[in-house]
Amino acid sequence: MKRNVYCDVPSFLDDNAKTGASLPFDEDLSVLGSALEVGSRTAPNRLACQAMEGCDGDADGRPGELTERRYRRFAAGGAGIIWFEATAVMREGRANPRQLYITEDNLDSFKKQVEEIKETALRERGHEPLVIMQATHSGRYSKPDGTPAPIIVKHDPLLEKDAAVDDSRIATDDYLERVGESLVSGARLAETAGFDGVDIKSCHRYLLSELLSAYDRPGRYGGPFENRTRLLRESVKGALGATSPGFIVTSRLNVCDGVPYPSGFGTDGEGSFDPAEPSRLVKELSALGVKLLDITMGNPYFNPHVNRPFASGPYEPEEHPLLGVKRVLEGTALVKKAAPTAALICSAVSYLGVAAPGVVSAYIRDGGFDAAGFGREAIAYPDFAKDILDSGMMDRRKICLCCSKCTEIMRKPGGTPGCAVRDREIYLPLYRELCGG
After folding, report:
1. What backbone phi and psi angles, to 5 degrees, belong to 227?
2. Domain boundaries, the chain
3. Which of 8, 51, 110, 398, by CA, is between 20 and 30 Å from 70?
4. Whole-number pLDDT of residue 2
5. Could you read off the pLDDT of 368-420 as tens digits, one per residue?
6. What are phi and psi of 222, to 5 degrees?
């Protein structure tokens, strides 16, 4: 079964038919260059750099040299939206000792970072992108000092099959209220730093995402839908109230965990996508005033093929990667129907290689979603948007190979992930040192 990324369109079209994925494809890419209105703000095009954590901040949470380098490359690359990576709002919620962490004490560093992004983009591309800060609490995956220090909302037999988490690590309702307060404070800080918006992160089984499937948790944050979505909704509402009217409050939102109910949100008993609750949640967030949502699925620690279909990785999924791409794109289009006035960004398109622009153009033109997010692709190929918009194609010599080397680096203690294939001078020596490749 073919699992290489697509270096030419005919190969994609052939597999698209053979696998039954039947993804739409449009040779006219002009829609990607059109502006996207998000409330009172405007993204200059429909291409987005997704939040891709570099684990290369300083110990006090401010951006480091490699962080600054990464965003200079993104800014010069021409994307209309730069989704700034996971930035902790509580120290104990950091995923690693070098995860970004915004505070009053280091706010000037974030101001400088945003200014540099906008100045670079304006100089190189003649426009300023929307820059969204992803406010996070890593929950189950917290490692603020480099060793696991999980904060969970419930026990999960699937995620704890190899190592049970002590009951003392279950967050209380009072603690979850403090998390909400910290997310709102983080939104205020993000606006002060010059970001165009804040993402109340609720994806990939981090803290707020895990709450969405807390069916058997007692108290204010578990059980019925109203309780499981409470922290996300209240944090969004608080952030909207604490910031200026034009400031964007959004969420990187898991609409399907890819594991069977009751372990997963947005799934049935077989683990297949069930859109009922995700659609309801998207509709309620839109009613609160959310005008932009970044849609994703899966858990990169448990079933990474669900949210980032790969050519090679830690295991070989039973499904062809194109079917994984289809699940995410069709799922995004389905929940879009619940909130037609909100702008939705898709995910999971890096595997498509040079065929990605044609696929996302077809969905955007048909109203399935409004912008296309590129994650690993942006790490390997930071000027992907420039090439798509200027030449009408992606360069096959630059595309992400979905080889998972960036993830391998990230999983190693002290690893600062990047592309060991396309950014060899910086990251190949690190890959060889940490991963033995």
Report:
1. -80, -45
2. 9-403, 404-437
3. 8
4. 60
5. 999 999 999 999 999 999 999 999 999 999 999 999 999 999 999 999 999 99
6. -140, 165
> In CATH, what number does 9-403 get?
3.20.20.70
Quote the CA–CA distance of 435 and 172 in Å, as a whole number. 38
Token pair, residue 375, equals 């994650």
At position 221, the amino acid (one-letter code) is Y
With a cut of 90, say whether residue 1 has pLDDT above it.
Answer: no
Residue 402 CA to residue 3 CA, distance in Å, equals: 10
- Predicted pLDDT at 186: 98
- What the block records as the tokens of 47 is 């291409």
Cis peptide before 262 (omega within 30 of 0): yes
- Quick: pLDDT tens for 322-379: 999 999 999 999 999 999 999 999 999 999 999 999 999 999 999 999 999 999 999 9
Burial class (CB in 10 A: 0-12, 13-18, 19+), 171: buried
Strand partners, 81: 48, 130
How far is 182 from 213, CA to CA, in rounded Å?
22
Nearest Cα residue to 36 out of 5, 81, 69, 66: 81
**Maximum C-alpha span of the chain:** 56
The confidence band for 3, taking pLDDT boundaries of 50, 70 and 90, is confident
* Burial of residue 432 (number of CB atoms within 10 Å: 0-12, 13-18, 19+): exposed
**Residues near 411 by Cβ (< 8 Å), separated by ≥ 6?**
none
Task: Give yes or no for a contact between 206 and 139, defined as CB atoms under 8 angstroms apart.
Answer: yes
- Write the pLDDT tens digit of every residue in 136-146: 999 999 999 99
Displacement of CA 250 from its chain's centroid (Å): 12
CB of 297 closer than 8 Å to CB of 255: yes
